[in-house]
Structures
1.
Amino acid sequence: MKKSIEEINQKISEGCARVVTSDEMPNIVKELGLELATKEIDVVTTGTFGAMCSSGAFLNFGHSDPPIKMQRVFLNDVEAFTGIAAVDAYIGATQQARGPTLDYGGGHVIEDLIGKKKIELRAESYGTDCYPLKSLETEITIDDLNQAIMVNPRNGYQKYNAATNSSDRVLYTYMGPLFPNFENISYSGSGLLSPLSNDPEYRTIGIGTRIFLAGAKGYVIGEGTQHDPENGFGTLMVRGNLKEMNTNFIRAAKIYKYGISLYIGLGIPIPILDEEMAKATAIEDKDVVTNIVDYGIQRRDKPILRRVTYEELKSGFVDLNGKEVKTFPMSSYLKAKEVAETLKREILKGSFKLSLPVESLPKSGKIKPMYQKKVNPMVKDLMSRRVVFIEEDTSIEEAAKVLVRNGIDHMPVVSEAGRLTGIITSWDIAKSVAKGSFYKKVKDAMSKNVICIGPDDFVDVAARRLEQYNISAMPVINPNREVLGMISSSDLSKLVRG
Amino acid sequence: MKMKIQIPANLVRKPIVSDIVLKTKVLINLEKVNIETNKADMIVDVKDEWEDVKKAFEERGIKVDLLKEPIKRRLDRCVMCGICSMICPVDVFKISEDWEVKMDSSRCIICKNCIDLCPTESLTIDY
Ligand code: SF4
Ligand code: SF4
């Protein structure tokens, strides 16, 4: 059984196409079998609704009188890229407004444009013979623009790595708040509703495929940046007319201690051309597999802790090393479903026709890491290996002597087995002396909450940590909590001096 | 019923809450207490006969605001992601079977943890 895209579009015109959302497909195929399902179902709609940082829009403002060659342009104080023609600019979703707060950014400008709000426009220039104006201030709405075209370099990730945190502190990431010691797992993506997961061979999704982008008709214009088909992490580059979009399917996001992003609703209709497509769209959450990675390791290649299905992620709990860990979504499944439902309704109404790609997306290739001429130094390269430490059962008096003898004011405390258990400073000792003989041993006076770092962490991570906790040094430990060295802000400043 | 109690300077050092518990025989759950030199604010939760407790405070010249809906959500902005359900210590938010994030405002203890973590700035607390 084969159907052509023309036949399917004909049925859509006649109002007799059978359209379902991709979460309905598994049961349909189970009940009818592949052959009958292929005959019965014409289109399967998919949807996703997540924070997609790699998004933005090209805007053309029209010419002022006298004309200006916009060299820098600000929309509600958010800078747009203007290294193109005189009155063209690209506003990126993650660009932050000038000033110290992280409250407003490109995502908000895009949402406000679609919401037809007034936007303050400022432009600066150096002035030329053909563009004499040097500065400009005005107020615009989307209706004043000649074009407002969303072009997103990377949307619609086939699936996304789930995130957890092995470290001993809360991490605020673009995957949301990750609690210490693997206490939670965050994930993104709509699993069985995900567009690319329903066409993993890229047979119907390719250059020229008509899609639903934030309420408007849009198109796939190519593979997205970081397209990684061999690992099953394909991405899409898409465009759509901002002027036709709907704020119901777009929402500026302010991700705590990370920055601005943009939630976008993206849906793709998949024509059921043959049994193979019926089979592909019958995918279930248990078939969509991703990785759980450890964001506690602040490196590019974060360790993969295990493979996990969206079925497990969506159940609310995942087993991680024998522990039940709570999961939470960053993206919205409810809105993803709304996207797929809306697209289904539009096709049923006859107002949305399907198109096949004019060119396929690349099926081979992998994402490459950055070429770095200079390798960033690691903590183990700069730490001092000569560490004075003390056992926790030593007396306070002895500890004081050790500090004085070595001319230092803090040292790590270790257990009998040589594992780090705390840190003691001259201040801790002074306090315990002031309180009389209340504390006798180092372990009674030390602080147990020690900020530390691993030898294979980058020095940039160490510097950030010292600054965050406002401390001057911290122990370097291995996974067994054995102290390998100390890293201090003066060790780090050696680096700056070269 | 949750209430916000504002105790003026002249009463800050008096054992008001114990006094009211003894007199009304109603249990008062202190959810948040903030004592400064010249005033004190409290969030209390009273399960039964809260009207009596309210009256008792007011009779002593203490301002009481009922917190019927301590946390408010703008449904026109919320995208139903579920981050708030991870953050809230008292399960105000729950993701339902059909992926709607349900909110039971009456449980809120006004810790304000969720306010900054909601990515769409949908959550507000007026107090
Ligand atoms: S975190 Fe904000 S946007 Fe997400 S479900 Fe909660 S209120 Fe809605
Ligand atoms: S303020 Fe605290 S208790 Fe109230 S809803 Fe937010 S997180 Fe929950």
2.
Amino acid sequence: MSYYNEEFETLPRQALEALQLKRLQATVARVCASVPFYRQSFDRAGITPDSVKSLADLQRLPFTLKQDMRDSYPYGLFAAPMEEIVRIHASSGTTGKPTVVGYTRKDIDTWSELMARSFAAAGVHRGDIIHNSYGYGLFTGGLGAHYGAEKLGASVIPMSGGNTKKQIMIMKDFGSTVLTCTPSYSLFMAEAAREEGVDFRQLKLHVGIFGAEPWSEAMRGEIEEKLNLCAIDIYGLSEIMGPGVAIECREAKKGLHIWEDHFIPEIIDPETGAVLPEGKLGELVITTITKEGIPLIRYRTRDITSLTYEPCACGRTHARLTRMTGRSDDMLIIRGVNVFPSQIESILMGIEGVEPHYVLIVDRKDNLDSLEVQVEVDERLFSDEIKVLQSLSQRIEKEIKDILGISCRVRLVEPQTITRSEGKAKRVIDNRKSS
Amino acid sequence: MNVEQISIFIENKSGRLAEITKVLGDAGVNIRALSLADTSDFGILRLIVNDRETAKQVLKERGFTVSKTEVVAVEVPDRPGGLSQILQALDRDQINVEYMYAFVERCGENAVIIFRFDETAKAISTLTKNGFTVLEGARLYAM
Ligand SMILES: [Zn+2]
């Protein structure tokens, strides 16, 4: 068991919550005083700095949306004068302007510490050689991991992305023991290494810290097998800080600890905005409670997860998020039930242990929503007997009914019938919108 | 003793069977026997062909899901109740027939039936013990 900051990582819940309240109150006061956007939105909601008397009052505060950040482009949400801002990052918006974030020196220190804690939780020590293939630049991945590695006292190789051949040579010659990159890049490198005649399994890597894109348990198995290392899931987003907002501990590898002395997580129903109880799947909302540069109140991440406060084997008291399973934009409401495509994907994976190609077709007939799940029959699912295939589709229907509480119809289809654009499958066809 | 059948998953939509037979014909594959089992959504096409490897390859290239299945080919005596005798013999030994279908061509005087059993080896021993003729794969493909 190794912590970076044992006192804070294992703070008893009561003390942790007292600290959160104190810090939340200070953050609300700070944004009220220095960010016009918050002053106005709090005014509209009838909130003053002393409205927050308990953590439960957090629910009364208005949300901050990604659109609010775009509308405040570039510096409108900054709560510190430029004299105090020492770093600026931006997230790549697929459309339009990026969202811009600024860090004070204290913010950089906090980020470095939380990233150092994350490395420690993943089983990284001084003496480890961290091969950092996250991109350096406006994107927070590279520098975030870099500062954390130095803070921990490990040796960091600032590789950034690209030039895969060189990455493999350096990893081999420098004896890298830790790999940080996106999960898909790790598999790409393993494949490229094989072509170069380098066996990834013979390298010194013992742990890989993978994030910045959603990945599955099946992909973890594949990475651990092909790279012969322990694959750890890390979560972060530039609006909140960057990498290191939450990470799995190596002991349990079951859920990502979110550093609650700096962030307050909530799970909401993306449709109604209501806060959901522990264990329920919904959209992650984060309030930063120590940031100076750009504090955010109830920021809607659009990431879908659930939260548990159950004690963890590692001894950390901070809540855990389940693996991110998609975006709230993908949510469907079928007969009043919130359904995420990822839930159906994990049901399908649970049944056959493979990642199947599927598409959800939602329709409305006689004012009633209907759901059809089309599953492509590949060689692993195929049988030459009708009854085997029929029982497969009945099993899927039953599992979906049991787990999600909605009835659906499963239709088995030929491979490649489901449209793929740019290699990614389109998961949902909602015909209700056009009718 | 076993015969290799190729099984193909098809959706119930028009033109699929025509496409498969055309793909096989273009590749010079001859279909010796065929059966289609279907539901309202999908079907399974089962084929005995002269060239299994080529058939499998060209169908896979066209995106079809194809698998190989072991089946048993039995000569049915050319007399009334011929098939019934086979089924009775299997039934006595409690062997389940998953499905069966007829071969297109005859083997000399006799018709040939393709059987899919859940216990292939046991089925073959019952059939031979009762004096029925189980045909070799090689003979069927070349017929
Ligand atoms: Zn833990």
3.
Amino acid sequence: MAIPTHAVDDTCVQLLTPEGERVANADFPLDVSDDELRALYRDLVLVRRVDAEATALQRQGELGLWAQVLGQEAAQVGAGRALVSGDMAFPTYREHGVAWCRGVDPLAVLGLFRGTTNGGWSPEEHGFAHYTIVIGDQCPQAVGYAMGMQHDAAENAAMVFFGDGASSQGDVNESFIWASVFNAPVVFFCQNNQWAISEPLERQTRIPLFQRAWGFGFPGVRVDGNDVLACLAVSRQMLQRAREGAGPALIEAFTYRMGAHTTSDDPTRYRLDTDVEAWRLRDPLERVRSFLHKQQLVDDAFFAELDDESEQLALSLRDGLRALPDPSIDDLFANAYAEPHSLVERQHDEFARYLAGFAIENAP
Amino acid sequence: MTETLTMGRAINQGLRCALERDPKTLLMGEDIGRLGGVFRVTDGLQKDFGEQRVIDTPLAESSILGAAIGLAMRGYRPVVEIQFDGLVYVAFDQIVSQLAKMHARSAGRVRMPVTVRHPYGGGIGAVEHHSESPEAYFAHTAGLRVVTPSNPVDAFHLVQQAIASDDPVVFLEPKRRYWDKAEVDVGSAPGLPMGSARVVRSGTDVTLVSYGPMVRTCLEAAAAAEGDGTSIEVVDLRSLAPLDLKTVIDSVRRTGRCVVAHEASVFLGMSAEVAASVTEECFYELESPVLRVGGFHTPYPPSRLEHHYLPDLDRVLDAVDRSLAY
Ligand SMILES: Cc1ncc(C[n+]2csc(CCOP(=O)(O)OP(=O)(O)O)c2C)c(N)n1
Ligand SMILES: [Mg+2]
């Protein structure tokens, strides 16, 4: 008998083709109203606008760095809109689309990249944990949170986001094991955008990532990550399964990082423009737009209003960003610990006195 | 063969020399190949030495270190890059529990000629985990040597000395000084052994001890103080483990005063060790207690606050003034 080297199944769930044709999938049916369809398109457009605006603001020196979500809007909006109140999302540093869906003020996200804060929002309030920069660290945390939900008999689930690069990380693989043995209500959402900075997917895996799930003891599904409907349908089903006690699942959203890794990166050193161009034809916004058109679900007024809203949003970001207050040194000391800490207090006092010395020196 | 090189480029040249000298030398890390590293320190090396010797690894730091240990057991001389300071903790267990202890565990039979390189320190407006100074963790770990250059010339030589060492060496690269330039003679022999400190400016009133990114700040402070009639001697430690205490102590015996400055938190930082040793050795010569300048016992702040966290010229001079005021 020949030893099989890999599983053969690499189907990809798709509900909306790049040309904007709706296709059925018996395993992942999706019931969406016309209003929901329009709302999804609005999300996609506005998330792209936040991203474009932030990229421009970085170039103008208003942000130290920006990690573009360009190309991954459908994956994030599909997943983000599948979450319900009480669910908890655990993001990486690129989940601006999920943040949007969870109602986190885009300015709070921009503040991270401006250097005014390292977090700041309340995870509980938004069902959205803080951005995690150390690759993979959020995965075991999501499992623990899900275990808490399980203990509380809450009918909710956690969803944790990570990349193809992250799939190599020990913590990510350990979190698969934990989720599996405790049957934790957690959905692993991997955005396979084919790149980890300059390293292509092949440096992380020899098999399609979703197939790894079976080895850990839970199902894996690959979904067209540029198809917001497919991402929504698959996420909804896997989250519902988890909420009902059927345990974890892995979703691999197959997509592409259209931009640089971050604004500091220079992708011309390691990838071809032709690859990027090929993916441009699979744009996540275009297909929804053409579907809405073909179905006559929208008119010119809809697009005009959305354009308007998008302009307003951009304006409020530009103004809001420049008005973000710088962090205070007092908060730095105050927030280091929950309870009083003698060393921190002493250093705080000493530094306050030091700064006051300048005020005296500079006094007229 | 003198060239004007940035520190980043000087390390690149040092790595190149090491790869040329010894076919057993390998480079491993994330994005070090085609991209040349996020700071371009390994630029061009994969092209010239091939993918077998300059290896882009999967995104898994613990295994970067674990694999380096295995390669070292097999007779290779791995040089691994961890992309940023705050990401090295993923590999901490392999470094502390395995890399550092292998030689002792094997009763001297197994050598670990592994170099762990990573940028460290703040001052470039980076996001969280990209501005940290973890040197004390490594210096505290028996079995590791820890070195850090403050200028391109030392960077060029020290990285080669680190690679040539049969002990594991943590080589810390002061990232905000990557772009500092100097004339480097790439044909020359190193002026000092790897474990030696250097007096980088002579003075008579107070000894200012520092290393890595803060040496330039201390030199600027010394230049500023000269105008006010204060003569500061600046010592660049270069090696944090072991410490070249003799150079520090000789200096303090001359000046009678000592200030130690670094970016890392002062609590149990390198300056605590220097202060204790200087006090033990120079008790009768000291005119004032050894003072420390450094980071606070808080997480490294968001970048818009880092100018407060990082000791600047004023904070260094404030400590010098306090030392002189005794
Ligand atoms: C533990 C750790 N190692 C390295 C890095 C540096 N780094 C930041 S993003 C990145 C690539 C991540 O790739 P992937 O997981 O595919 O996510 P993507 O950026 O493509 O969204 C790397 C290596 C990091 N932040 N954390
Ligand atoms: Mg990726």
